[in-house]
Amino acid sequence: MNNSTGTHIDMEALASSVAVLQSNIDHFFLLVMGCLVFFMQCGFAFLEAGSVRSKNTTNILIKNLLDVSIGAVAYYAVGYAFSFGPGNIFIGYKYFFMIDMPTSLYSHWFFQFVFAATATTIVSGAMAERTEFAAYFVYSCIITGFVYPVVTHWAWSGEGWLTEGPPNETLQYWDFAGSGVVHVVGGAAGFVGAAIIGPRIGRFVNGKPVEIPGHTVPLSALGGFILMFGFFAFNGGSQASISQSGDGVVVALAIINTTLSGCIAAIVSLVLKRSLKVQSWSLLATINGALTGMVAICAGCNVMEPWGAAITGLVSGFTYIGWSKLVLYLRVDDPLDAVAVHLGGGLWGVCSVTLFAKDVGVVYQFNEQSWKQFGWNAVGGFAIMSWTMVVAAIMFGLLHLFKCLRVSEEIELKGLDVAKHKEPAYPSMAYGDGWGLDSPLANGNGVVYVRDVDTEMKDVSKTPIGNSVTSNSNSFTANETTTGVDNPAYQDKVDVSTLPL
User: Fold this and answer.
1) In 3D, which of 126, 121, 123, 128 has the Cα closest to residue 53?
2) How far apart are CA 407 and CA 418, in angstroms?
3) pLDDT tens-place string over residues 68-117
4) Residue 221 CA, distance from chain mean position
5) What is the Cα–Cα distance from 142 to 79, expressed in whole angstroms?
6) Residue 292's closest CA among 325, 324, 316?
7) CA gap 272, 266 in Å, rounded
8) At 9, phi and psi to the nearest 5?
9) DSSP assignment of 175-215
10) Considering the entire predicted model, what is its pTM?
């Protein structure tokens, strides 16, 4: 009897220990995956920095940092409460400032925060090179703290109207990792912001688009690779646990499908770009195609068979090229093609999951129920896009009305790095090996010199960053490979301390 009682107690203790271990493993899984998703911010920073001109590099980098910093505060204060706090079918209203929030939700808070930060960061790329710095404080706070959380509550809280489905129907909105919830929100807000702020100076001439290339393709490529790496955690981590039976298989399937969709979309985008008027093998189009495929597969990466993910990626390549052309046709200037990648890819993803979901999708069943599911997901995608666009139009419209949205023409032409931050990303006086032009002060020692055939050495360190020094054809600069003309029409000197911040 005593032995039986002792064995029973031991089994209870063992079961309790296993339950604690499972819980800790799931928390650890979410935190690690969240950290990897957070690393996508580095990818966004590199991709955006490489896609803008050198004179705006510091500006875009600090905006990426602020997207996270401001977003964290907003999500802590109200964002998580609106998203997952108990509430009604529209919005939550508990856990503000994490008050009364169970500690068991801490890992969930972090994982959901990095998703919110991703949605916000998408917008900065679409509005790059001409947005007022203060405007980023406003939109980062509102998107992370209100726009995105409301959508999250609709789809993922368990009590939102998209989750509950229409009356008398057994339908729920399907979106495993956020094709609609994350990417449609970011892409739609970016589209509205880019449309209201207007194109960069010189982007459209006589109604026709003029290419404004970024200053470093390698940096963009590195950012693209980091984002592709981050998508494995973005999609795989959305399972939210790893300790239960079948969790590992779902995570593995999500990562495999993400790989297939992204890689096939990259190839399709490359070939399509080559087939168009450009007639070139475009690296940037390939990167954006891969990202579009990974965005599209977010919704159904856990329920599709690999062949379904392959078809999703195939269509994603066409989706990216088509949306990119549509945005240009509408004369909306999107330096990163963020709208094509995230809005276009996200909407296709919301539809594709209902087509290729194993055993229940339209391709498998082709019955009334499967088409109803397709329709409900389409309603969800349209509702998410509409909600985001309406709020974004009000927000950016007010900023534009009060002249707080766009920098002045003078600052846009000269670049935002020096005017706004006084920290040029590539200060010309910092380059060189220190051995040039017979002077210990030249070439990387703090002063930039130019030798003119008619004059002695001349200090040009006060020449605006991004403007070259002109002289006779026989003259040369100590750093002629790193100082180029960003705006040939503007060559005069300026005291940056007089420009408004």
Assistant:
1) 128
2) 13
3) 999 999 999 999 999 999 999 999 999 999 999 999 999 999 999 999 99
4) 15
5) 9
6) 316
7) 10
8) -65, -40
9) -SS-IIIIIIHHHHHHHHHHHHH-PPTTSEETTEE-----S
10) 0.86
